[in-house]
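Run log, item B.
One chain of 227 residues. Sequence copied directly from the ordering sheet:
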Amino acid sequence: FVFDSNFFYDIIFEMLCAVMHIHKIGYVHFDIKPKNFLIDAHGHIKLTDFCLSKNQSFVELNQKDLPDGDAIYLSPELFHKTNVSFKTDIFSLGLSILELLTNETLPKNGDIWRTIRSMSIPSFYYDKINSNLDRNLFITLISSMTKVNPLERCSIEEILTDNEKYPMFYQRYQDLESGEYKNVFDPFERREFKDEQCDFSTFNVEDINKNFAKRSDSTKFIFSNNK
């Protein structure tokens, strides 16, 4: 497999767009994690599994009666059941992106789990981001998505419209809006990944089940320009 940084940018861009779209229609997903993203036959990302999703108005009125989701990607405010909003999905998505870029399984409890939710992501995780990628860009991106205080987290729209910090996402978003967007992930060329899970760090076919799950029984969803 020939390394292509655009492959990573396309995958993450579409993950961002999928979550942004459900927020635009008024829903908090509550279970954002790598296993709930699928790659379809055309190389596009689909977000799945909406069994925990709640309308924003329900979330605002029922802060103490909300689903937890997966402990590995759980936001601090959802753990404490206070100030829960769309930003809880942003936190989970930030951790999902980190896990995909590092191939490191994040903790579901313990001291590091608490550090991530009370302070910040330990630097040794960032050191494991593939050196062929713009590591500083992803450190900026992930840290802005995983702020302990949800009010300090960036929105996905802020990411996609920031040409200075995230030009590769900005340009893809402009292309998407104009109908010109085409990703570089071709599952027919990369047959070892077709209908399988994808290990972004090693591209080891034997390990691809680590990061993406086949969920044929899940509700399929993808952002509006790729219905």
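Observations after the first pass:
- Confidence is low (pLDDT under 50) at residues 191-227.
- Residues 37 and 66 are 22 Å apart (CA to CA).
Flagged for discussion on Thursday.
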